[in-house]
Design a protein that fits this description.
The protein has helices spanning 40-57, 62-78, 80-91, 95-112, 115-118, 154-165, 180-191, 206-214, 227-239, 262-274, 294-304, 326-341, 376-379, 395-404, 418-427, 463-469; strands at 2-4, 6-8, 11-13, 20-25, 30-36, 123-128, 131-139, 142-146, 169-173, 199-201, 218-224, 243-247, 252-256, 284-290, 345-348, 366-369, 386-392, 407-408, 410-414, 432-435, 451-452, 455-456, 471-479. By secondary structure, it is an alpha/beta fold. Helix 7 (180-191) links the parallel strand 9 and strand 10. Helix 1 (40-57) packs across helix 8, helix 2 packs antiparallel against helix 4 and helix 3 (80-91) runs antiparallel to helix 7 (180-191). The protein is globular, with a radius of gyration of 25 Å. Bound molecules: nicotinamide-adenine-dinucleotide (NAD). InterPro entries: Ald_DH/histidinol_DH (IPR016161), Ald_DH_C (IPR016163), Ald_DH_CS_CYS (IPR016160), Ald_DH_N (IPR016162), Aldehyde_DH_dom (IPR015590), MeMal-semiAld_DH (IPR010061). One of its GO terms (biological process) is thymine catabolic process. Keywords: NAD, Oxidoreductase.
Length: 496
């Protein structure tokens, strides 16, 4: 069986904890690998290696760092299909979707190639007579990333591209469910000429995470995962004096106003609700139908459901793959059952879908109508191919619903009315807003992050916020006096 080790000091390193976890191919249900699960001591050793590497890496010139990023970018662009295939094998999402994930990760690398510009400070000449003041940004040292199963390539790239370009050493603890993409990225960094120890992978579970959170030499932790764990990471990490950004779960609403283009809204609901089997933090899980469009919209979505081709992600004909594990599939089917018992109208029940592959963790697309905010299918993040439709009478009710929700990651409005769309952007409590765009993931030169229970901390991920997060500011006040003018002055320094 394939064995997945750690990556420490620029090379694979077999684990010594004696603990391993299984890695499955969700499309077949077969175990395809075992992954080492690091002990606290192994994490400590990895951080020590990273600390050494960070000392040297921050002395590398901006142009040298930028050159490594450019080479990494070229290699990643050339080999992107290899990485996509790894993502499909361990995560299950279809190849085209995996390629899309890699492409969005690549954009973060491209952004980070501009590090000489991104690290520029500011300079004020003659702030006082003969005194100049300037600001610089410096790397933090060793920083860590803890990532979820659903984007095993893109989320690590969100973090590591900016962290490394800014001059830090980056320690990645990927999801133990699909860890191979992280090891593949490690090899690529080596090939790109990144010095050993600047990019580290420690595989593991809670034990490794807790060791990272407790380690005094880890200056910052960037986390993406579910809300309860995000909250735990934020509280534990900040209590240890670390800088933490912890992105959590989501319940993304798509509001459809009565004047929306019906076919486009139905297409968008299908794409954003069932793409990646609903295992996206930016998936649409609630359609809020306003007024008389509700009936025709539900019909239009229902009519499209049989067209979704479900199957092994390696088959180019497949559009929706399996869920990540048998346990997760059972959890999602449990939610469907709760929707039924709590009175939702079942338009399509994925449990009874025709033509599901006989092996693997597949589930058909489910559409529930007349969902109300007290139902569990509404309150909980399901993270599966289950779309709920909530019917409301007015725009005001729709916005109230979104704003009252615990989560505030992404949201979208579908309308032909520019004024309504602008009002929505003004009113809504969410970090990322789409106008006739169902999955408004910001491009790499903006930053990604939700509000409310979708993000703990105050810094969004990647882009300008990413640079801020992985660096700290220093302000220098400088005078080069003529020795003849020196005098003693015990008063507080003034500028005028
Ligand atoms: P998860 O919270 O179970 O795991 C995320 C990471 O935390 C993994 O590396 C895991 O090993 C670690 N972890 C798990 N349990 C832990 C514990 N008790 N103590 C310490 N560490 C622990 O999340 P997941 O199931 O891998 O990913 C899906 C979740 O991630 C969904 O809730 C989804 O919405 C969210 N997500 C959010 C975003 C975003 O940008 N907001 C992006 C992707 C995924």
């Amino acid at each position: 069986m394939n064995h997945i080790a750690h990556w420490i000091g620029g090379a694979e390193q077999k684990g010594t904890s004696g603990r391993v976890g299984p890695v499955y191919n969700p499309a077949t249900g077969e175990q395809i690998a075992e992954v080492d699960l690091a002990s606290g001591e192994e994490v400590s050793a990895a951080v020590a290696t990273a600390k050494e590497a960070a000392r040297a890496w921050r002395t590398a010139s901006l142009s040298k760092r930028s050159a490594v990023l450019f080479t990494f970018r070229e290699l990643l662009a050339a080999k992107r299909q290899e990485l996509a295939a790894i993502v499909t094998r361990e995560h299950g999402k279809v190849l085209a979707d995996a390629a899309g994930e890699v492409a969005r990760g690549l954009e973060n690398v491209e952004f980070a190639t501009g590090i000489p510009h991104l690290m520029k400070g500011s300079f004020s000449e003659q702030a006082a007579t003969g005194v100049d003041v300037y600001s610089i940004r410096q790397p933090l040292g060793v920083v860590a990333g803890i990532t979820p199963f659903n984007f095993p390539a893109m989320v690590p790239l969100w973090m590591c591209a900016t962290a490394i370009a800014a001059g830090n050493a980056f320690v990645l603890k990927p999801s133990e469910k699909d860890p191979s993409a992280a090891l593949w990225l490690a090899e690529l960094w080596r090939e790109a000429g990144l010095p050993a120890g600047v990019f580290t992978v420690v595989n593991g579970d809670k034990e490794a995470v807790d060791a990272i959170l407790a380690h005094p030499d880890v200056a910052a932790v960037s986390f993406v995962g579910s809300t309860p764990i995000a909250k735990y990471i934020y509280e534990t990490g900040t209590a240890q004096g670390k800088r933490v950004q912890a992105l959590g779960g989501a319940k993304n609403h798509m509001i459809v106003l009565p004047d929306a283009e019906l076919a486009a809204a139905a297409d968008a609901a299908i794409s954003a609700g069932y793409g990646a089997a609903g295992e996206r933090c930016m998936a649409i899980s609630v359609v809020v139908a306003v007024g008389e469009i509700a009936g025709p919209l539900v019909e239009a979505i229902a009519a499209r459901l049989p067209q979704i081709k479900i199957g092994d992600g390696t088959d180019p004909a497949s559009e929706m793959g399996p869920l990540i594990s048998a346990q997760h599939r059972d959890k999602v089917t449990g939610y469907i059952e709760s929707g039924v018992t709590q009175g939702a109208t079942v338009i399509a029940d994925g449990r009874n879908a025709d033509n599901l592959p006989s092996k693997g963790y597949f589930l058909g697309a489910t559409l529930l109508d007349n969902v109300t905010p007290d139902m569990t299918v509404y309150t909980d993040e399901i993270f599966g191919p289950v779309l709920s439709v909530v019917r409301v009478d007015t725009y005001a009710e729709a916005v109230e619903l979104v704003n009252a929700n615990e989560y505030g990651n992404g949201t979208a409005i579908f309308t032909r009315d520019g004024g309504a769309a602008r009002q929505f952007q003004f009113d809504v409590n969410a970090g990322m807003v789409g106008v006739n765009v169902p999955i408004p993931v910001p491009v790499a030169y903006y930053s990604f992050g939700g509000w409310k229970a979708s993000l703990f901390g105050d810094s969004h991920m990647y882009g300008p916020d990413g640079i801020q997060f992985f660096t700290r500011g220093k302000v220098v006040t400088s005078r080069w006096p003529d020795p003849g003018t020196s005098s003693i002055d015990l008063g507080f320094p003034q500028t005028r």
